[in-house]
Each structure stands twice: as structure tokens, then as C-alpha cells.
Amino acid sequence: MPDVPADPYASEAVATALPAATVVPLRDGPDGLETVLLRRDKGLTFAGGLWVWPGGRIEDDDGPSGGDDPMAALERAARVAGARETLEESGLVVEPDELVWFAHFTPPIGPERRYATFFFATAVGRDVVVRPDGMEVHEHRWFTPERALAACRAGEIGLSPPTWIVLEWLASYPDTATALQTFTAGVPQWCVTKFGRVEGGMVAMYHGDAGYDTDDPETQGDRHRLLMLDSGWRYERTNWPEREGTT
To answer: Which residues lie closer than 8 Å to 237 by C-beta, 6 or more apart?
Structure first.
């Protein structure tokens, strides 16, 4: 995993986005690792109708900012925000200090409302009860990562690019303990998105893709991208283990 940049908010795309946090609850089911996704109400302006993890904007009350280490202060606030939003949207109680920060996603400059989002993972009990808030969220489902991706391919659910990519990562782990151990031992993946056009659709590129620095998705070389084609979505990453059903 690439290191967190020394000053990640030096990026204009990140600095001009609203700080936010998302929590990925994990548990072990009969077929391995599972995660819960919530369907946002179709009438919502942001991500309406998509299936997401609980999360939202970091509020002033979530923690102090600044100090000698502004990034550490922001991470602490993100943990509090993630736990708060998880309780509000799903009824699940998670502890801020037990959240494992494993990624940070920021969309490119463009949309009026953009979020620079910390992604945290945490284990929850097999028998926890999810209670959607009935306002932003009305439905929830537990999925294995593979089944969530298959449901999106079949048009049963809608996913955002970061959700798709994180599900691809989660599909590499046999159980919750392995996923959390791997995330804890590594460093967060810092993903500032760049979009490009390719034949048959769009592509989201991330650091490590040959087209990322050139702003040209046709540049030959290593790949770290999500192809969002009319024929379907496909995650490509150099040295990434291919799995059955990923194309």
C-alpha cells in the first residue's frame, strides 16, 4: 500500500472537498466475510438510491482541529464522526478507537458537493441487529463482497466507484480477522480520483496507474483503475490477483 502523503491536503482536490468518514462493518457468515450495505433513499441529492456503508460529513462537534499534527486531529475527528454516523444510520454501535483506517477516497474537482472520505473497517457480532434510520436509509442487506459485486453487475443494486473498489479488496480476504489484520499491518491507501474517457465508457484512475500522471488513460504501463464501461465495470490493478467473475 502507498504511504499517506506527507501533506495530503496540499492536493487541491482534497483541500476543497468536505471531510467525511465511512465505516465498513464486517462479520463472518457461513460463506466467509460479510459486510452490510445500506440503500440511500432515492430522493436524496447525494448518492440517492445507491447502496453504501454508513457515514457522513465530519462535524465541528466531532473533535478539535489543528494543533501540532492537524492530520492526526482530523483522523481522530473522523473516527468519532464514523461511529456517530454508523449509530444514526444503522443503529450499530462501534467504538472510535477500534476502527481500522485503511483508505481515503476523494473524487476529482467538479461536482458542487464532494467529500474527502476516511474509510474505516471494524468487526461486529454475528447477531447484531441493523436498524435503518427510516429517513436517509430504509433498506439494508448483508453481502459477501462477491455477491455485492454480482448484484451490481446484474443491475439489482447501484454502487459508487469507491464502494466497488473496497468490495474488490475485501473479496481477497477469507474472513474478518484476516482483513483487519492486513489493514492494521499496512498503511491507508490514499486514492484521489482522476476520471478519463475510454472506448465504451469511463475510467477512474488512481495513484500507480500509468495514465494517472499523464491524464491519459491510454498511456501504457501499470494499472490501478476502475473501468466503468457500458458492458460492465472492471477493476484492474497490476499484480492484483484475478478472481473468477471479475470481468
So the answer is: 208, 223, 224, 225
Instruction: Give the CB-side neighbour count of residue 27, counting CA atoms within 13 A.
Output: 16
Query: Residue 145's closest CA among 126, 162, 168?
Result: 168
Q: Is 175 helix (H, G, I), strand (E, B) or coil?
A: coil
- CA pair distance 186, 209, nearest whole angstrom: 20
Does residue 244 register a pLDDT over 90? no
Continuous segment of H or E residues that includes residue 38: strand 32-40
d(CA 55, CA 119): 9
Q: pLDDT grade, residue 201 (50/70/90)?
A: very high
Neighbours of 95 (CB within 10 A): 9
CATH architecture assignment, domain 8-192: Alpha-Beta Complex (3.90)
Neighbouring C-beta atoms of residue 133, cutoff 10 Å: 15
Residue type for position 177 = A
Domain locations along the chain? 8-192, 194-247
- Across the strands, what pairs with 52? 38
Is 171 in contact with 24 (CB distance < 8 Å)?
no
Strand pairing category for 201-205 and 194-198: antiparallel
Of 177, 110, 153, 133, which Cα lies nearest the Cα of 44?
133
State yes or no: pLDDT of 205 exceeds 60.
yes
Beta bridge partner(s), residue 143: 35
Query: Residues 34-44, buried b or exposed e (16+ Cβ, 10 A)?
Result: bbbbbbbbeee
pTM exceeding 0.90 = yes
